[in-house]
Amino acid sequence: MSVSSEAPAPSGDGSCRGQTSPGPGRKAPGGGRGSAVLCGEWRNREPHANPFFFCSLQDLPVEMLVEIFASLPGTDLPSLAQACTKFHHILHIDSIWRRRCREEYGVRENLQNLETIGISYREVYAKMFPYRHILGLWKLESSYKRLLNVVVDGLCITGWTYRPSLDTHVDGPMPFKPAFRICLTEWKSATVECMEGRHSRPHSCHLQIQKDRLTLQCKKTDHRKDSPTRLRREVGLGLVREDRQQYDCLTYRRLYLPPSHPDDLIRPGLFQCKDDDLGLMIAMLSFHGKYARLTTVTGDLIWTLEIHLMRRIQLRDGEFFRDFDELSRVVQEIPGSRRSRET
Ligand SMILES: [Zn+2]
């Protein structure tokens, strides 16, 4: 929905009232839908007899406009602010941008220290806007799959990677480590910082997004030397195949979570699981009609388990064999048993 396309041009004195109220016989802007509301006392009269049949969007109370604007995509709001001075002033109300930050970037309510450092949600929205495509789940494209979760942490964007461990129990906490961060607290343009390696952390790196691919390039080599050794100690031979050269340039592919349905007994998504040889890993549960599918998204071996939900196996409960005479009859009918008795 784009309200800006229906908003009138600003008047010279900045007043909005009555600009879009058409007289009798005039066509309402936007085809009479969306931007127009019926005035109370004329509600039950014939539209043609009503000179104020349509009230403009600008006639709504400020509180209502705040609610409407806060529900619109943030990309629509700058053009809406140009419609008139009333909209321009309303769009400086920070609760609108706080909601946009929460719904579009996952920014938690009451961002800490925001007032202390003198920055508004409107500025936070603008700072994060160039990085909005980075947020979400990514899967490393290499011989060893790992998961990258890019989220908003305060005024930083952080990429958390899952690192496998043989020692972690399936009930234990999922070990995540920061792979990179983008700090947005500086007034200058934000830079991407690599958090890998044991020394000289953090250091600058280069991040690029092309469609569904995210590439992280780093010129530091200390984590390239350390990581295979560390990983080998952590998960045995499972990671020795990891290409050392790839540590300078890691390419991830976006991972989409399966859709959820209200009737699902278990909500699909990512789950912890454990393999005796490969340790803790992450698997995705999804439902496909009669089938439930479990696919690993981390580890060096990707396997899929498909369960037919309508083919429940009915196990014999043993009641039949509680009758000793009946059991003897069944045993005697087994060919091998009969032969052994005859000989
Ligand atoms: Zn690095």
TrEMBL record:
Q: Which UniProt keywords apply?
A: Ubl conjugation pathway
What positions does the domain F-box occupy?
A: 54-100
Pfam families from the UniProt entry:
Cyclin_D1_bind, F-box-like
> Its domain of life?
Eukaryota
Q: What pathway, per the record?
A: Protein modification; protein ubiquitination
| Gene Ontology BP terms | protein ubiquitination; SCF-dependent proteasomal ubiquitin-dependent protein catabolic process
Span list, region Disordered:
1-32
Q: Which GO terms describe its cellular component?
A: SCF ubiquitin ligase complex
Looking up PANTHER family in the UniProt record yields: F-BOX FAMILY PROTEIN, F-BOX ONLY PROTEIN 31
Q: Which family does it belong to?
A: Belongs to the FBXO31 family.
**Which protein, by its recorded name, is this?**
F-box only protein 31
